[in-house]
Design goal:
The protein is of the alpha/beta class. The protein has a domain of 104 residues. 35% of the residues lie in helices and 17% in strands. It contains 8 helices and 10 strands. It has a 4-stranded mixed sheet. It starts with 8 loop residues before the first strand and ends in an 18-residue tail after the last strand. The relative contact order is 0.21. This is PD-(D/E)XK endonuclease-like domain-containing protein. Pfam families: PDDEXK_1.
Length: 292
């Protein structure tokens, strides 16, 4: 099959996680569209709103010259960004809950201002707003993803991948996030990847460096998952591992698809919804879940 990015199957860290957790949830988040708007759906939650706001503030710094990057308070920038996610728009049940999450965000950004570390250095920008490459041209599968920060390492003329984390838990060794980012950076710009780190903004003053993954093994594994996703889409077979009883990943989305959610806004070309708190168990969202 000739490559065609418009008919290709696009996969990302988030969509892969969706599929591996529950194919039905993958369908509802990545294929299903609301009939009235034609948009995909997203359930907004406080943790997702927090991650979105903090990421937006930090990622905006990469376009600011290094010498004036921290002249404006990041906390004041958060106030501006937060307006888009205040109240129901951020999935907050009341002012107390919103205040708690906003204060967490402010604390993270104060930590960065006090310990800016690599953010004081030059940053590399990939020209595409959504970096991607052909995982398989023959099979029409594309890998994509947005990387939080690329620090330029002058001595090595290389890249330091930094992924901001706003959750309270650390990534496991099985996470495919760094392998995906390593592949994307290696394929979408010319400088070599020298190192990669997670920066746990909730409790760490500095990024935590991780071993660079084997990109050859990662590419093989991702292509295998991509083929499974492509086959599921072709067969239109997206079954929850729990069968008709559903699981915590698909049941809330099923409620929204049935029209039981309340639309509160938009995020990344998705309509965002909330459900009654009693009907949804909030999951500590991965921070790139609002990207694709």
């Amino acid at each position: 099959m000739a490559k065609d990015k418009y008919s290709a199957v696009w996969i990302s860290h988030t969509s892969i996680n969706d599929f591996l957790q529950c194919p039905r949830a993958y369908f509802l988040k990545n294929i299903f569209k609301d009939r009235s708007s034609g948009n995909k759906i997203q359930i907004i939650s406080p943790s997702l709103a927090l991650g979105s706001a903090v990421h937006e503030v930090l990622e905006s710094l990469s376009t600011v010259p290094t010498e004036i990057r921290f002249e404006e308070s990041l906390v004041l920038k958060l106030d501006q960004v937060w307006e888009k996610l205040s109240g129901k728009k951020g999935g907050f049940k009341d002012l107390d809950e919103e205040h708690k999450y906003k204060e967490r965000g402010k604390a993270m950004l104060r930590r960065v201002m006090d310990h800016p570390g690599p953010l004081l250095n030059l940053a590399v920008k990939i020209k595409e707003s959504l970096p991607y490459f052909w995982l398989s041209e023959e099979e029409n599968i594309i890998l994509c993803g947005k990387i939080d920060w690329l620090e330029y390492l002058k001595e090595a003329d290389g890249i330091h991948i930094i992924d901001f984390k706003t959750s309270k838990k650390e990534e496991t060794g099985e996470s495919l996030q760094l392998p995906i980012y390593h592949l994307l950076v290696a394929r979408c710009q010319k400088r070599p990847v020298a190192k990669a780190s997670y920066w746990y903004l909730d409790f760490s003053d500095l990024p935590k460096e991780k071993d660079l993954p084997d990109v050859t093994k990662a590419e093989t594994k991702l292509l295998d998952i991509g083929r499974k996703i492509k086959l599921a889409r072709k067969l239109e077979r997206f079954e929850c591992p729990n069968g008709k009883s559903g699981c915590i990943h698909c049941l809330p989305l099923e409620s929204v698809a049935r029209g039981e959610g309340e639309k509160v806004g938009e995020m990344g070309h998705r309509d965002t919804y909330i459900l009654e708190k009693e009907s949804i168990q909030e999951i500590d969202d991965t921070e790139d879940s609002f990207i694709i």
